[in-house]
Amino acid sequence: MTAPTQKLINDGNAAVDEMLAGILAAHPEHLWRPEHAPRAVVARQGPRKGKVALVIGGGSGHEPTFLGFVGKGLADAAAIGNVFASPPPQPAVDAALAANGGAGVLFMYGNYAGDVMNFDMASEMLEMEGVEARTVLTTDDVASHPDRAKRRGVAGNVFIFKAAGAAADRMLPLDEVERIARHANARTFTMGVALSSCSLPQTRRPSFDLPAGEMEIGMGIHGEAGVRRGPLRPADEVVDEIMDLLLAEMAAPPGARVALLVNSLGATPLMELYIMNARIVQRLQQARLSVHRTLVGPYCTSLDMAGASITLMHLDDELAGLLDHPCDCAMFRQG
Amino acid sequence: MDLTTDDLVEMFRKLSVRMATERDHLCRLDGFAGDGDHGIAMEQGMQAAHLAVTGTEGSLQDLFNAAAKGFLNAVGASSGPLYATALLRAGKAAGPRQTMPRDDLRQVIAAMRDGIVHRGKAEPGMKTMLDAWHPAAEAALAGASPDAIVTAAQEGADATRDMVAAMGRSERLGERSLGHADPGAVSAVMIVEEICGTMRAEA
Fold first, then answer.
1. Three-state SS for A287?
2. I want to staple A156 with a disulfide (CB 3.0 to 4.6 A). Which of A45, A56, A125, A140 is the partner?
3. From CA A232, how far away is CA B177, in angstroms rounded?
4. Contact call for residues B111 and B95 (beta carbons, < 8 A)
5. Rounded mean pLDDT of B71-78?
6. pLDDT value, residue B203
7. Nearest CA in chain A to B120
8. Which residues of B touch A (CB under 8 A)?
9. What is d(CA B15, CA A223) in angstroms, rounded to the nearest whole number?
């Protein structure tokens, strides 16, 4: 039996609630939570009368996803689950009611069986209260399934939520916000590589076995198996393998614009992300694609997993404008 | 002797202890194909279910309903809605009675299976918890002994080793899901075991 992984925690079972206490204390100008709803986090600025409420959510352990993207111009509220586990319906209902401006609620979250069941139950509960709730699932993880509708949602959430949040902030009606959310999702493509396992606060044991010296291309943000496992290769080769697949999937014509996210899964430092980015931009130039906006850093993590993911969003004028729209969240700001 | 509400509370206490004991084992099993947290969800869920029934006065159905709500709100995840729906159906099967014949737990097992099918939309053979619940329910309805019901569940769970996942997160593994039992089916056997233990119990 190997030694437990080292974590700065107190009690594994209390990790999520203690984290939330710390986040709310750090960002009182951005976030609050209703007294009766400890797992619903709501934007101070943002929700308002006549505006579609964008409510996101999912398991914890991916910070700053999801609650870091709650704020004016982006999501209005988030439902917070246990580590890597969908929230139950109640926090989603609480988040939706707190953010409701009378123009309907749009739930957005990654496509996972558990999240779908819980958020669908939440939608049924809201319907009984006379609040219309619709759902757009994110399915950007190219490695997870050949069929787009069955793919998981991963780091591309950032761009997809951003576009939908901007649409809602512009006071567009629910039909339009939903259309834009689907359009944004359809044009977003992510693939990752894992270099080490993560470990849950409750078990402090590697969640899966990834031997030293190996990497797994396409691994999911909870350690779901990817497309290929093999010896770790230099950054440029790993980037090339991922970019080959992403560019083929995206099939953007020369001259097209993209938004680019180079995301750390938790343990991989900025140095390595920027090394990857140097190669990524070469590949984009070769494909005659221009980068409209680049994000580099930990945006959708997997606890302490080492590894990274690359996301490309194939922009059109509408999506570019929505990504440029200002937002002010606890962990994501745009001027 | 008939099953009382106290017996039902005791059954949830045993389930809670059992899941706490098996937590790490279930997590490791989940690590092969899933995200390694199934044992945590089951431990938290059954703990909350036990807490909820100890604080509830009322009929057997009231207790099952409280357990369902407790489980769901503690867990979320996939097992939350699945077991919440299963426990609500169990409550319906037990009905607004203070006691019932222990043999009626057969209908409870079958009702739980029906709830899981309703919520999860899986079919037998897709490498899910249903592969243990379905044979257990069929055995229970056919009048099998409590031991035989457990054996049916166990054989169902064992058979998931040779199945390719077609549902849930491990679906994306395809052929790589072969060789390991589905953790949801393994924990289902434990639940069936505790229910059958209660069915068998003389008091």
1. coil
2. A140
3. 23
4. no
5. 93
6. 44
7. A117
8. 24, 27-28, 31-37, 39-41, 44, 72-82, 119-120, 167-173, 176
9. 28
Strand order in the sheet with A257-264: A228-231, A214-217, A188-194, A307-315, A257-264, A290-297
Residue A71 per-residue DSSP state: E
State the catalytic residue, choosing from A222, A292, A314, A325. A222
* Cα dist from A155 to A192, A204, A260, B198, whole Å: 9, 24, 11, 47
Cis before residue A66, ω within 30 degrees of 0? yes
| Partner residue facing A223 (CB), from B36, B72, B74 | B36
Alpha carbons A257 and A320: distance in angstroms, whole number: 9
> Residue B16 corresponds to which tokens in the numbers above?
């809670």
What are the pLDDT digits (tens) for A303-327? 999 999 999 999 999 999 999 999 9
pLDDT at A207 (0 to 100): 82
The set of long-range contacts for A225-233, using a CB threshold of 8 Å and a minimum separation of 24, is A225/B33, A225/B172, A225/B173, A225/B176, A226/A143, A226/A192, A226/A193, A226/A194, A227/A143, A232/A195
Q: Could you tell me which residues come within 8 angstroms of residue B29 by beta carbon, excluding any fewer than 6 positions away?
A: B38, B39, B180, B181, B183, B186
Alpha helices by DSSP H, listed for A187-269, are 235-250
B60-75 vs B38-54: helix axis angle to the nearest 10? 140
3-state secondary structure of B101: coil
ipTM exceeding cut-off 0.85 for this assembly: no
* Closest by CA position to B114, among listed B149, B88, B139, B78: B88
Give the contacts of A251 (CB within 8 A, at least 6 positions apart): none
In the 8-state DSSP scheme, what is residue A49?
T
Backbone angles phi, psi at B201, to 5 degrees: -60, 135
> Can you read off the two tokens belonging to residue A66?
């999801």
The sign of the torsion formed by the CA atoms of A244, A245, A249, A250 equals negative
